[in-house]
Structure formats: structure tokens, C-alpha cells
Amino acid sequence: MLNPRGIIERYRDFLPVDDKTPIVTLHEGNTPLILSEDLTQRLGLKVYLKYEGLNPTGSFKDRGMTMAITKAKEKGCTAVMCASTGNTSASAAAYTARSGSMRCFVIIPEGNIALGKLAQAMIHNAKVIAIKGNFDEALNIVREVTDNYPVELVNSINPFRIEGQKTGAFEVCDELGEAPEFHAIPVGNAGNITAYWKGYNEYKGAGKATQLPKMLGFQAAGAAPIVLGKPVENPETIATAIRIGNPASWKLAEAARDESGGLIHAVTDEQILEAYKLLAASTGVFVEPASAASVAGILKLKHEGYFDGHKDARIVCTVTGHGLKDPNIAIKNVIEPVVMEADLKAIVQEIGL
Ligand SMILES: *Cc1c(COP(=O)(O)O)cnc(C)c1O
Predict the structure, then answer these.
(1) Is 156 close to ligand 1, i.e. is its CB under 6 Å away?
(2) What is the whole-number distance in angstroms between the Cα of residue 198 and the centre of ligand 1?
(3) Where would you tag: which of 88, 93, 111, 254 has the fewest CB atoms within 10 A of its CB?
């Protein structure tokens, strides 16, 4: 499908831009919607993966960032700031670099950023400050700074982020010719579940889909404030992108859940890692751990009988970020290479040919 210059151009009728808006794009969006035969067989319904790891900086954050940076540029801003578990900063750093006119300040929780994401923010020349605190504390600082100085906030509480991210739902509908029956998605700050729900509703309103999916959100068990009904002071999970104890879009995520007749559940780190390895080994899709929460979640729901009676339904899982973001986790979860002499016979024997 044609995607000449990113999501703003493709979906401009649904976005707050006009002819004079200076679009800052890295040609994001138009990501593959991959039917997983393996998961389809396991679940008994058609499972599609919306592979957001194939965006320019390797996560869905680019959909929101092209909008946020474009609108910041339109306003004449010269600096933006975000708190980040990694991918927001990678994306903000790349899009500000692309803008040619903006600086980027990033606050991250020290020691809890995947290596690839940190590398991205640094190479794109963002000013990165690691605090001895968690994401929620980082976001509070960013709110204070952006309230009081001429710096634009580009976390997902920036409404333009949600506007951009809703195009993920548009692409799903355009590709399937209809909205799916279910949509599964990891939940951290809850911006993306909010954005997809908004997107599905707008597309239905525009007559481009006739139904709405049930939204199935998944938090990590050690960082599941929405499931528990209260903030988590010290969130813990290997899925660092959803290691959030007090989601910025909490209420909107609950609205998406309730209006759609869906749910928000928790999955353990073990379940996340299992789904992470399964996706890579059995479908060929390498995602970062947080992304696998959506797949871990639907496997768990299947086990609980949630999908009974929905045999031919379609379910789309947003797999949010690329596996190469977090190579350390991958290496820790596989068998190390066998070290051998450069001996043909011995190698053939080792392979079992
Ligand atoms: C940001 C992010 C999430 C969480 O999205 P929210 O909008 O914060 O709920 C999940 N996975 C990855 C890879 C992310 O970068």
C-alpha cells in the first residue's frame, strides 16, 4: 500500500494539520500486519501481529512523535523534553534531529533503559540525564520543567502524540477491510491503548469500519496499577517499556476497556518471556519484551477459555517495539553458541547431518 511520506500525509484528513504545517517525518507507519499461522493454530482464531518494530526508530512511538514534533515546529518551539523508559527518547531524539531546528532533553531512570534505546537517544544528539529514580519521578520533573520554561513536553500526555498513534488503528482497518473483533496491546503509560481506541472510533464514525474491537490491555504483573486499582510505588518487570506505576492515561485506558467491553489484565515476566521466545522462534518476529505482553496476554486468555465461541474471529496484537532494542534480554534467554574447532567433520556431526 502506498505510504509516500509517513502517517501525516497518509491520514491528514483525520489529523490536526493544514497546508502550512511543516511536516517532520521519517516516513513512519505503514507497518506490516502479519498473520501468525502458529498463534492462529494455538488460539483457534486468526491472530495478526501489527509489527510496530519496523517503524524508523524501531517502535510505535514514531507515529506519535511525527505529530508532536511537527506541531512543536509549527508553534516555533526550539526545544522539547520527555521522560522515557527508552523508546520515547529514541523517537524524540530522531525527530528533533530531523526537524533541523530543535533540541531534545531526555530524563531517564538510571540503569533501567535497554541498551539499544540509550544508544539511539545519544547518537541523535539528545541531552540525556539519568536520574536516580523511576519513570514516574522522571515524568514529574518533565512536567515541572515544561510548565515553567519554553520547552515542549512530548510525552504521551501531549495530545498530538495520541493523534499520531491512532493511525495504527486506521492501518489495521485499511488492511483488513474492517476492524477486528479483538485488539490486544501492552499497557504502560496507557497512551497507545487510548490512541487505538480513538482511532477505531473515528474510523467507524467515518464509515470506514462497521464494528469496534474489544480492547484487551496487558500490564506486567510487577507493574499493574490499573489491574490493582492503585498506583504501584516501585514497579518491577523485565519489560522495561511498561515498567510504569502510575500511568498518565489511566482514566482513558479504563474508558477504552469499558466502552469496548474488553479488559485489562496482568501477565507475569515468565509469561512475557515465554511469548517473546515463541514469537521469535515460531513466527519469526523479534520484538522487545514489553511487546510480547500482548501475545502473553492472549495466550493466557485462551487458556482461561475467554475466546470460546469466537472461532473465526480476528485478533490483532500490537507488537510495539523491535527486539534489537534490548539485545541483553535476548542473549540471556537463549543457549550460548557452541565453540568448536574449524573442523568440517566435527561441525557436520554437531549439527546432526
Ligand atoms: C511505550 C511502549 C509501550 C507502552 O505504551 P503506552 O502507550 O505507554 O501504554 C509498550 N511497548 C513499547 C515497546 C513501548 O515503547
Answers:
(1) yes
(2) 16
(3) 111
In short, whether 62's Cβ falls inside 6 Å of ligand 1 is no
Q: What is the CA radius of gyration of the chain?
A: 20
Q: Whose CA is nearest to atom 13 of ligand 1?
A: 321
Distance 188 CA to ligand 1 centre (A): 5
194 CB less than 6 Å from ligand 1? no
Put simply, whether the predicted model's pTM sits higher than 0.85 gets the answer yes
> Does 239 contact ligand 1 (Cβ within 6 A)?
no
Tell me how far apart the alpha carbons of residues 295 and 272 are, in angstroms, rounded to a whole number.
8
Whether ligand 1 lies within 6 angstroms of the CB of 283 is answered as: no
Q: Residue 136 class from Cβ within 10 Å (0-12 exposed, 13-18 middle, 19+ buried)?
A: buried
Number of H helices, E strands in the chain: 15, 10
Our answer on whether the CB atom of 321 is closer than 6 Å to any ligand 1 atom is: yes
> Closest ligand 1 atom, CA of 53?
13
End-to-end CA distance of the chain: 43
How would you write the pLDDT of the chain (353 residues) with one tens digit per residue?
555 689 999 999 999 999 999 999 999 999 999 999 999 999 999 999 999 999 999 999 999 999 999 999 999 999 999 999 899 999 999 999 999 999 999 999 888 788 899 999 999 999 999 999 988 899 999 999 999 999 999 998 999 999 999 999 999 999 999 999 999 999 999 999 999 999 999 999 999 999 999 999 999 999 999 999 999 999 999 999 999 999 999 999 999 999 999 999 999 999 999 999 999 999 999 999 999 999 999 999 999 999 999 988 999 999 999 999 999 999 999 998 999 999 999 999 999 99
Q: How many angstroms separate the Cα of 139 from the Cα of each of 45, 85, 97, 135?
A: 39, 10, 22, 6
